[in-house]
């Protein structure tokens, strides 16, 4: 029998206690849906995002997130240069693009989506045992990664696997373990290609980013967005920029991801076999703001569930090397726009920052 829920719904008397009670159930947003609710609890209502969605205007038909085909990357020099130019233009103007023919076949991508769905819809005891907010755990399941920072919950549950060289694969739930490990290897190869293209696009040697271990840590967030009875009142993911170097996202065919571009909320329309690449705040800083880290969010929907897998690529999170705008890219005409900082301090700032603020705003010169 599905549990019953007695949280306040669509009222103004929500409290942190409401969310605590929800969290202690360890059944996530899916547990709410399975209980048969027709109204969402008040602590899921996002007044700011509701206003943003309500003010959205019709998007001009020519505003479409760039799709870059990597198939001819090894064909000849002219083809390679063309792809580099497309990556540069997309990173400067959009901060997000999709790549196809990247080396991970469509069947493998579809299998990842299916296995992640199986986990989220599978054994409740397995999920309850993994449910926790201790960030030292390399594998964990939870709902709302940063609720305490934001004041309002988001309509999604997440399985987290932190690939930093120390993760024991046997900790990953059996139902999706083999698939996730194989996908991680495929994404690692895609990241090598992207780092090469981005390095060359910035006028650097092809191995520049890779040689500096800027892909050391690869936390993978496997999101599950259940169908929502009142999607107009809440959000799947609130508006934000990624704190990463880059983020590589696999999304299913339902859509819901939107990026803010030229004042418009533009749909990142799912493309079969594609991966979405977001420029993160760290790469924006590294390029001295030449590359754009774009704001984006994910809508809640009555359709669902929606599945996505975000792999966040960053330097080692315990690195003691100063990080900031790359000196090779600076000049009298292009002075640094951000202070240097240590990655551990950057992470602490991210975890304690005000909602909807970019981490980089705290290091702006």
Automatic annotation (TrEMBL):
Entry-linked Gene3D superfamilies: B-lactam Antibiotic, Isopenicillin N Synthase, Chain
Annotated region described as Disordered, given as residue ranges: 1-20
InterPro entries: DIOX_N, IPNS-like_FE2OG_OXY, IPNS-like_sf, Oxoglu/Fe-dep_dioxygenase_dom
UniProt KW keywords: Iron, Metal-binding, Oxidoreductase
Residue ranges occupied by any Fe2OG dioxygenase domain in the UniProt entry: 215-315
Family: Belongs to the iron/ascorbate-dependent oxidoreductase family.
Protein known as: 1-aminocyclopropane-1-carboxylate oxidase 1-like isoform X1
Organism: Carex littledalei
């Amino acid at each position: 029998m599905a549990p019953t829920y007695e949280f306040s719904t669509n009222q103004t008397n929500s409290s942190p206690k409401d969310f605590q009670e929800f969290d202690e159930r360890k059944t996530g947003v899916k547990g709410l849906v399975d209980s048969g609710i027709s109204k969402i609890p008040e602590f899921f209502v996002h007044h700011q995002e509701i206003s943003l969605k309500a003010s959205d205007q019709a998007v001009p038909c020519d505003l479409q997130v760039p799709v870059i085909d990597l198939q001819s990357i090894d064909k000849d020099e002219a083809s390679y240069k063309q792809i580099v130019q497309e990556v540069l233009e997309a990173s400067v103007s959009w901060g997000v693009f999709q790549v196809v023919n990247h080396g991970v076949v469509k069947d493998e991508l579809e299998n990842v989506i299916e296995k992640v769905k199986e986990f989220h819809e599978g054994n409740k005891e397995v999920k309850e045992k993994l449910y926790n907010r201790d960030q030292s755990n390399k594998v964990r399941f939870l709902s709302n990664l940063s609720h305490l920072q934001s004041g309002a919950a988001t309509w999604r549950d997440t399985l987290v696997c932190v690939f930093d060289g120390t993760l024991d694969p046997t900790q990953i739930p059996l139902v999706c373990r083999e698939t996730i490990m194989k996908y991680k290897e495929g994404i690692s190869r895609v990241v090598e290609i992207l780092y090469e293209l981005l390095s060359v696009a910035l006028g650097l040697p092809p191995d520049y980013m890779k040689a500096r271990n800027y892909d050391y840590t690869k936390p993978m967030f496997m999101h599950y967005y259940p169908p929502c009875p009142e999607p107009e009142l809440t959000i799947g993911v609130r508006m934000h920029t990624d704190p990463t170097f880059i983020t590589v996202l696999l999304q299913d065919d339902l859509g819901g991801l939107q990026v803010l571009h030229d004042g418009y909320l533009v749909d990142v329309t799912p493309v079969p076999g594609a991966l979405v690449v977001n420029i993160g705040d760290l790469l924006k800083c590294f390029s001295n703001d030449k590359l754009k880290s774009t704001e984006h969010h994910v809508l809640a929907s009555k359709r669902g569930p929606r599945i996505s897998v975000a792999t966040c690529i960053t330097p080692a999170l315990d690195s003691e090397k100063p990080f900031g705008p790359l000196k090779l890219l600076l000049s009298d005409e292009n002075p640094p726009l951000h202070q240097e900082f240590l990655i551990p301090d950057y992470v602490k700032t991210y975890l304690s920052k005000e909602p909807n603020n970019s981490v980089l705003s705290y290091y702006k010169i």
